[in-house]
Amino acid sequence: MNTMTAALTTTSRRPSPSKTTLSFRRPNFDCRDLPDELSLVIYVPGTAASGVEIEARGPDLTVTARKKHFVRPNWTALHLEAVQKDYRLKLRLGHGFSYPEIRAEIHEGILTLTIPKRNAGVLGARRAA
């Protein structure tokens, strides 16, 4: 006796992420909105000042921190791929900041960015009056 079954439909899978998104991981960060500026503390252990890139395009801020990659002489695979990834943080902060005046400082894997607000001087003068 023959059994009739309905044809199986294939489900579509989400496309796998591209290699560019796989090569970075998002770092932990803290953000404080102060009256005259925005303070952004980003935790990027294993990076140095020479490996940090800060880019602002319109309302978006992108911080890329690259680690020093080295291969040990007694290298064996230990599934450390996620630990050895570089860091990339993308934030949409808006147009209210003066991106060319960003101050950056890194010490022991803690990157501190201070981003002044555009109208902070005007607001400060109004509050003082």
Task: Give a short summary of the structure.
This protein has 129 residues and is mainly beta.
Walk me through the structure:
With 129 residues, the protein is mainly β. The protein has a single domain, classed as Immunoglobulin-like (Sandwich). The chain is built from 2 helices and 8 strands; from the N terminus they run αββββββββα. A hairpin with a 3-residue loop joins strand 2 and strand 3. The chain starts with 18 loop residues before the first helix and ends with a helix. The model has no long low-confidence stretch (mean pLDDT 79).
Keywords for this entry:
four-stranded antiparallel beta sheet; Immunoglobulin-like; 129 residues; elongated; four-stranded mixed beta sheet; single chain; mainly beta; 10% helix
Largest sheet properties: 4 strands, mixed
Report the strand count: 8
CATH C-level label: Mainly Beta
Number of domains: 1
How far apart lie the N and C ends? 94 Å
Order of helices and strands: HEEEEEEEEH
Strand residue content = 35-45%
Low-confidence stretches: none
Q: How much helix is in the residues? A: 10-25%
Strand adjacency order, main sheet: 1-6-5-4
- Average predicted confidence as pLDDT: 79
Protein topology:
Elements: H1 19-22, E1 24-25, E2 28-33, E3 37-43, E4 47-57, E5 60-67, E6 86-92, E7 103-107, E8 110-116, H2 120-128
Parallel strand pairs: 1-6
Antiparallel strand pairs: 2-3, 3-8, 4-5, 5-6, 7-8
